[in-house]
Sequence to fold (177 residues):
Amino acid sequence: MDISSDQLDVLFSAEDLRIRIKELGAQIEADYKDRDIHVICVLKGSFPFLADLVRQIKHDNLSVDFLGLSSYGNETKSSGVVRMTQDLTIPIEGKNVLIIEDIIDTGLTMHYLLENLKTRLPKTMEICTLLHKPSNTEKEVDMKYVGFTIPNKFVIGYGLDYAERFRNLPYIGVVRQ
Ligand code: IMP
Ligand code: MG
Fold:
């Protein structure tokens, strides 16, 4: 399948994203008012979301780290076999960890990540995902913050890729069938 950006319908415009991310930031800011937040960005897809979200959280004790995950599979379907391509640089023991994800589809990637990070003894650990596709759930994971719940469509842009392309789109689009 080849895709060009003029075959895309806009699902969430840059303005839709801005408004919702501002709300999420306010919610996180209130919830973490009295404790540190250690944000973990799951690369690669979450980088634009992370950058926009943390700038909507007023907090004097917020730190950021990155972790790379890649799930084997074809371009549009994850296999659940996850590989860590880059590990954290800061220990998370005793920290209030907030995992930032672009999308949770089957839940297999996040399930793998939670099992891995739990062994490192964070004080608390919550998930903030921009998108959730509940129709494909294979592993239930507890998501405290969800930007948008979406139907079972393959979406690209704003960090989300199709075969490594389109991460640079400022909006989230869906391929017109
Ligand atoms: P899961 O393991 O099925 O929950 O899938 C998680 C990963 O699959 C995400 O982090 C994305 O990299 C990828 N993914 C799932 N759905 C989409 C989509 O609609 N567009 C782009 N990537 C997706
Ligand atoms: Mg991802």
Summary: The beta strands are 8-12, 37-43, 62-73, 78-86, 96-104, 124-132, 145-149, 155-156, 172-175. Residues 14-31 form the longest helix (18 residues). Helices lie at 14-31, 47-54, 108-118. The pocket of magnesium ion (ligand 2) is lined by residues 42, 45, 102 (CB under 6 Å).
